[in-house]
Amino acid sequence: MTHLSRRAFVTAALASLLVSCAGHGGGASATRPGGTHVSARSSADPANAPSTLGRSVPARLRIPEIGVDTPVMRLGLAQDGSVQVPPITAHDRAGWYQHSPTPGQTGPSVILGHVTVGAYGDGVFRHLDRLRRGDGITVRLENGGSAEFTVTSVRTVAKADFPTKAVYGDVDRPELRLITCGGPRTGDGYLDNVIVFAALSTTHH
């Protein structure tokens, strides 16, 4: 990352940027009962790690296990310093935080999405918490390449205890973070965040 984008990325992290999910509309979050940390850390062998990719903006996200196949929009920072979230629309899309690495670059690439989208019902990440370790995620890039990731862990955490360092902190390999809301509903939204951690498994140029 450039100095400017890294600074913005760290600023976002330190501000404990959380997904602002819609508090109205279809369906409650499908959180696994009683689960906070619901699967184990990755045991991938670094010696067999795929090569990293050059910077290319993500264009599409596919998660076959939960039926996700969505365009990816760019998200920046809002005026209050929080990460922007995708707009509440009938055709919900995921959004990539553009101050994070692009998928396939070294570091944590961050993609956010809604669990519900107001009166429109289910959001694109409605079933994110159903993912399990070993499930596959494919991100297609604007340059025609793609990065395939393997889920290493899935966590449901209270927004008040958001693991900023684990999500936004430096890592020495290409990783992916998918974030949405979850847990109990309140009048304004949800109390928890669902966070998927994944590591790069294959690249296609």
TrEMBL record:
Source species of the chain: Streptomyces monashensis
Domain of life according to the entry: Bacteria
Gene Ontology terms for molecular function: hydrolase activity
UniProt cross-references to InterPro entries, sorted A to Z: Sortase, Sortase_dom-sf, Sortase_F, TAT_signal
Protein name: Class F sortase
Keyword Ion transport: no
Pfam family name, one: Sortase
Region (Disordered): 26-55
Keywords for this protein: Hydrolase, Signal
Segment forming the signal sequence: 1-25
